[in-house]
Structure formats: C-alpha cells, structure tokens
Amino acid sequence: MSARRGQPLTIQEIYAAVLRLVDEGGVENLSMRKLAAELDVNPMSLYHHVENKDALLRGACTAVALGLRLPPDDGTPWQEQLRALAHAYRSIALSHPALWSYVNAHPGLVEQEGGMWEVFNRVLAAAGVPAGELVRVRTVLYTFVSGLLTAETSGLLAGLDPDGDAETTFDAAVDLILDALGSRVT
Amino acid sequence: MSARRGQPLTIQEIYAAVLRLVDEGGVENLSMRKLAAELDVNPMSLYHHVENKDALLRGACTAVALGLRLPPDDGTPWQEQLRALAHAYRSIALSHPALWSYVNAHPGLVEQEGGMWEVFNRVLAAAGVPAGELVRVRTVLYTFVSGLLTAETSGLLAGLDPDGDAETTFDAAVDLILDALGSRVT
DNA sequence: ACCTGAACACCGTTCAAGT
DNA sequence: ACCTGAACACCGTTCAAGT
C-alpha cells in the first residue's frame, strides 16, 4: 500500500529533503533510510527515482549549482564582475555550507556549475589575461575563493575583523587578490 | 585467545594502519572492522586503545601534523620563511591527501598543528604586519594555501602549467600572494 | 591489563513480488 | 509505472565474560 498522501514523489521533493537533512546535520547525516522517513516513504521507493546514494548527492549538488546568479555580460569593469561572481558563489556556499564543503572536497562532482567557468573565462579575457594563461589564472583565483569559503563555512572568519563581519574580511581578501591580478595584467 | 603474533598493539601501530587505509581509499574507506582486520585483531580490541572512531581519526591527524617541518628562526627574509612554511605544509598535505582534505574540511580538529600558527605569527610580525591585523592576515594567507592544496590534491593543478608540474603552479601562486602582501606592508 | 563473542541498532542495496 | 518487504552484507558501539 502507499503510505504517502499525494502524488508519486518528485525528484525536486527528494532534493529538497536531502538539503534539509544535509543542512541540519552535514552530509554524514544523510542516509537513504532517514531520507525515506523524512519523505514518509519506504526506503526502497527512492531507488525508483535515483540510481544510488552517490548519484542522489551529485544530483542535489547540481540542482543547487543551477541556482548560481551569474553576473550579466554588460559593460561593467572586470574587477566588478569578478567581485559579483565571487559573491554569487559565496551566496550559494553559505546557503548550504555542508553541501558546499562536500562539493569543494570532491571537485568534478558537478560538471558545469551553472556555466560559472564560461563567465569566468569571459571576464578574465576582458581583463587582459592571455588565452594561454587563462585556465591557470582562473584556477588560482578559484582556489583562493574556495579557501576563503572553507574558512568562512567553518567559522574561522567570524569576528576576525574588529569593525565588521565575515563578509568584510571576505571582501578585503577578494580586493587583495584582485589588486594582485590587476598589477599583473596591466 | 590472542590471534595476534606479537606484543599488545601500540597506538602508533594503529595510526600507521589508519594512514594505510585512508591513503588508499579515503576516509570513507576506514572502518573499525576493516582496521581491525588490517591489524589482525578483534574489532573490539581497538576500543581498549581508542575512545571511538572520531577520536581515532583525530589522533591520526594530530600524529601526522606533528611531522610538520617548521622553518627555523634564523635571519632569513620573511618571504623566504613563508615560502618554506607553505612548502612544509604542502609536503604533509601531499603525503596524505585524503586525510588532509578531511582535516581541511574539519578545522579545529587538530588544535596545534605542530606549532605552525606560532611560527606563522613570528614571520608575519617580522614582515611588518601590525599586531592588530595579524590574525586576519594569517587566516587569509592560510586559506589561500588551503585552497591551492585542495585543488592540487584533487588533481586540478596537474598539467596546468605548460612548462612544469603542479609545484610550479603552486610556487607561482604563492609568489603572487607574497607580492600582494609585500605591497601592503611596505 | 588486555582481549573477545554475542548482541543491538543502524547502514546501502538487490530482488522478487505486489498494485 | 510505481511501490514494497524480506533479505544480505555491512557499519559503530556496549557489555558481560574470559585470560
């Protein structure tokens, strides 16, 4: 018999429940059986919508990544666009810290993070980074932001700036690296 | 009866087996039962030497951290000492990538990473960083290296530099951030 | 002091069976 | 098409018992 109240059980419904469990207790708090209980469903029903636990997590990560708000290709200066990209990425990371930490430790898990890399490429090209160095520069910049967010999601950035919050420190650090980049490309 | 060949089972022996398992299959490859099998011992015997699995992992991480080769306090320039510190840290991360990734995602797991923070403080003070900004600068620098190593341990840095290996990219990135720091303190 | 076996409450996943 | 129950091979950990 069907213990469920409504319609079949959608993948969105499943992802939402995954986020609830992971947000509240980390990735290690997610189990197929707990997830089924959260959805008021038999554990085995999940396997009709998802290949296995790994695929489920990958799917949830991709779903979150698609929510990335990429800066548009208007004429604004590259520094501003990079800042906007960094903040968009940070916003997603902070809304699901545990899941982001998991993705960060397993890169390649989500192939296209909402087209982030293409935008990154465009802005860096506009900044004057030669095509041959693009991937390297992009990777280094990304790792920098990734490191900052690792610190922030673990509370290492909290109360670090006497006059402000973690965002102040994040901004200052991004400015630092943008200055360094600027002095290289000009 | 004792299925073991020799003496009681030392904590060093246990940590060594933990490293073997984690190095070869990641932290998720470590289970108390597999570890016991690796040591040719009853699973329950482990609990006589270690409180539980979390404490075991924490202990193994601390043991590794104690192997950090800190740069001595000779008169060498601060840039060179920071580079040496970064390389010492990198060396440990690369020798146990999976364990390092775990520590990186769980900061505060190992309290004193072999006195790394004290050395960091000393060198930054020598570089002219005001005492009030020391922790913030240190944290930002650390997160930068942490991000680079996350990339390197996941293979993102491999083959990025046309003329060299991942170390070349690592060095170039460290130089970039040292330049940025230098232009702030002088 | 150190080790052990049985037991408990969990896991992910397969498979044959139900509607 | 979608769901389910029983089953299998795993987990971490407790506890009473052995030497």
Word description of this protein:
- 2 copies of one chain form a homodimer.
- Helices cover 61% and strands 0% of the residues of chain A.
- By secondary structure, the first copy, chain A, is mainly α.
- Chain A has 2 domains: 11-62, Homeodomain-like (Arc Repressor Mutant, subunit A, Orthogonal Bundle), CATH 1.10.10.60; 70-185, Tetracycline Repressor, domain 2, CATH 1.10.357.
- Chains A and B meet through helix 5, helix 7 and helix 8 of A and helix 5, helix 7 and helix 8 of B.
- The structure holds a DNA duplex (19 and 19 nucleotides).
Protein traits:
Arc Repressor Mutant, subunit A, mainly alpha, DNA-binding, Tetracycline Repressor, domain 2, 8 helices, homodimer, 2 domains, 186 residues
CATH superfamily of the largest domain in chain A: Tetracycline Repressor, domain 2
Question: How many domains is the backbone of chain A divided into?
Answer: 2
CATH class of the largest domain in chain A: Mainly Alpha
Q: Low-confidence spans of chain A: pLDDT under 50, at least 5 residues?
A: none
CATH topological fold name of the largest domain in chain A: Tetracycline Repressor, domain 2
Categorize the overall geometry of chain A: elongated
Number of strands of chain A: 0
Amino-to-carboxy terminus distance of chain A? 69 Å
Largest sheet of chain A: none
Q: Helicity range of the residues of chain A? A: 55-70%
Mean pLDDT, all residues of chain A: 91
If interface size is counted as residues with C-beta under 8 Å from the partner's C-beta, which chains form the largest one? A-B, 35 and 35 residues
Structural class by sheet pairing and helices of chain A: mainly alpha
State the oligomer: homodimer
Query: Helices and strands of chain A, in N-to-C order?
Result: HHHHHHHH
